[in-house]
Amino acid sequence: MTKVHRSIRGSAAMPVILLLVSVVAIGLFGWFYVTQLAPKDEAPTAGMVFESPHTDEGAPVIQQSEMPSINGEQQPGAAEEESVPAPEVSSAPVAIDVAKATGVRAIGNVNAPVKIIEYASLTCSHCAHFHNEILPALKTKYIDTGKVYLEFREFPLDDAAMKATLTARCLPEDKYESFVALLFKSQEQWARNMDYLTSLRQNAKLAGMSDAVFDACQKEPMLKLKIAENMQEAKDKWKINATPTFIVNDGAETIQGAQPLENFERVFRKITDGAVGEAPAVE
User: Fold this and answer.
1) d(CA 124, CA 188)
2) CA 33 to the chain's CA centroid
3) Strand 114-120 to strand 148-154: parallel, antiparallel, or no bridges (unpaired)?
4) Phi, psi at 154, each rounded to 5°
5) CA dihedral (237, 242, 243, 244) positive or negative
6) Element (H or E) spanning 149, and its range?
7) What does the pLDDT look like over 42-52, one tens digit per residue?
8) Half-sphere exposure of 96 (CA within 13 A, CB side)
9) Rounded to whole angstroms, what are the CA distances from 96 to 8, 200, 220?
10) What is residue 64's predicted lDDT score, i.e. its pLDDT?
11) Residue 166 in contact with residue 224, Cβ under 8 Å?
């Protein structure tokens, strides 16, 4: 064979050799990828533990959708919580019965031989003195025994007294006297307080009055008007210009100021010809 023939035969064999090398290389890479690099999908074994989601307290959380059902009915615990409707709050305004609120407030026997009308202001210190120091004895000796009838009429001298009057008038009739007595006993605490309205509200709550009634009472224009009319009538009819003032037996006698019990008794004897009123040993 000549040199030319051997060169041609060697050149033809080279592509075959390169092809065989490529096939072997690809095969080795594929084997290495499958056995070493490819991710493995491992199935859970019998010894593996699955944890349920937990709350902060560590108790397993059970979803309501996972609760079993029987005959298509959810078992207890699977039903959704029933919504509880919020309580209805009435928006209707509180109505004040002005006629009832301005009715007579009195103690004693309406047929007693001595009838007294007291005009007082709930912030008046002299009025407080009468109610705290003189009225208890007058009540024991003459009112409770049916000899004297005492009617309360307000004559408020300032804004605090007016608001206190409105409050007292909006209470039930049977609570009026005790509430007025409370206000006179605690006059230094509430009447001298810059925030007297809050103190009045607190005292009214002690008497059973709600905030709604208290607020409505303070805003009722007809009640304020009626009290103002009563004050004007007292000025016109009895010439009232100071408190306390006591009108005895429809004007037969007038007592001004917180007089001692003896002075009341002197008037009682005068207008009843001695039938009412304990006489002192020496007059």
Assistant:
1) 10
2) 78
3) parallel
4) -85, 145
5) negative
6) strand 148-154
7) 444 433 333 43
8) 26
9) 128, 18, 7
10) 40
11) yes
3 state SS of 106:
strand
Question: Once rounded to an integer, what is the mean pLDDT over residues 95-104?
Answer: 96
Per-residue pLDDT tens over the stretch 52-90 = 334 444 433 334 434 444 444 444 444 444 555 554 444
pTM of the predicted model over 0.85 = no
Q: Report whether 244 contacts 132 (CB < 8 A).
A: no
Q: Which two tokens stand for residue 37?
A: 């690099």
Question: Both tokens of residue 178?
Answer: 């005790």
Report the residue count for the chain: 283
**Token pair recorded at residue 107:** 């103690």
Distance CA 179, CA 167 (A): 9
The per-residue pLDDT of the chain, averaged, comes to 81
What letter does residue 64 receive in the DSSP assignment? Answer: G
- Which parts of the chain fold into alpha helices (H)? 3-32, 98-101, 125-129, 135-138, 159-170, 173-185, 187-190, 196-206, 211-219, 221-238, 261-271
> Furthest-apart CA pair in the chain: how many Å?
180
With tokens 């009843």, the residue in question is 272
For the segment 253-282, the average pLDDT, to the nearest whole number, is: 94
Cβ neighbours of residue 52 under 8 Å, at least 6 residues apart?
A: 60, 61
Q: How many Cα atoms sit within 13 Å of 253 on the Cβ side?
A: 15
**Can you tell me the distance from the alpha carbon of 118 to that of 125, in angstroms, rounded to the nearest whole number?**
15
- Alpha-carbon torsion (72, 78, 80, 84), positive or negative: positive
Q: The dihedral of CA 183, 189, 191, 196: what is its sign?
A: negative
Tokens found for residue 90: 């009435």
Q: Which of 148, 161, 138, 160 lies closest to 117 in space, CA to CA?
A: 148
